[in-house]
Amino acid sequence: MALTALDAKTALIVIDLQRGIVALPVVHPASEIVQRSVAVLDAFRRHGLPVVLVNVAAGAPGRTDQGTRTGDFPAGFTELVPELNPQPSDHLVTKRTWGAFTNTDLEAYLRKEGVTQVVLVGIATSIGVESTARYASELGLNVTLVVDAMTDMNADAHTNSITRIFPRLGETGTTQEVLALLDSTRA
């Protein structure tokens, strides 16, 4: 579904724009994803809306073929990219699973802030972004996915999320569409 509205209390959730993830080989240039995400981030801050910065420090427990559950990442892997310029008003979430809600305080924070809608950006489309969007949808939040401010390590997975999954979870739009809607509704 195309982007139609942003609720009065909408929060931005920035998924895994951290040194280790941004350095991975991705479908779209990570620098462009960071740049677009920062444009949305700056607009949310400018309009006084909640910002959540998420990083990942481990994988979910259990056996996988990829062995990502141990959390033995190289030094600096979990550090947010400096372009995000974390502010004291930002809410920081460190996740240990794909989604930003599981075993974190994200749901409680959003409820405390009275948030009814979330906007998501980040890496990876089919992993952290999709998992977080699914949970937000299940909580009854309105979900908006900024499809040109996200990418994946796998082109087919990225396309599947954007074309098949996201339209079932919420609305999709571009960075420019989100910025225009923010500015026109909060002038």
UniProtKB/TrEMBL annotation:
Keyword presence, Hydrolase: yes
Designated name of the protein: Isochorismatase family protein YecD
Domain spans labelled Isochorismatase-like: 10-177
The organism's place on the tree of life at top rank: Bacteria
Record-level Gene Ontology MF annotations: hydrolase activity
Name of the top EC class for this enzyme: hydrolase
Gene3D superfamilies named in the record: Isochorismatase-like
UniProt entry tagged with the keyword Transit peptide: no
E.C. number: 3.-.-.-
Record's keyword terms, sorted: Hydrolase
Species name: Paraburkholderia fynbosensis
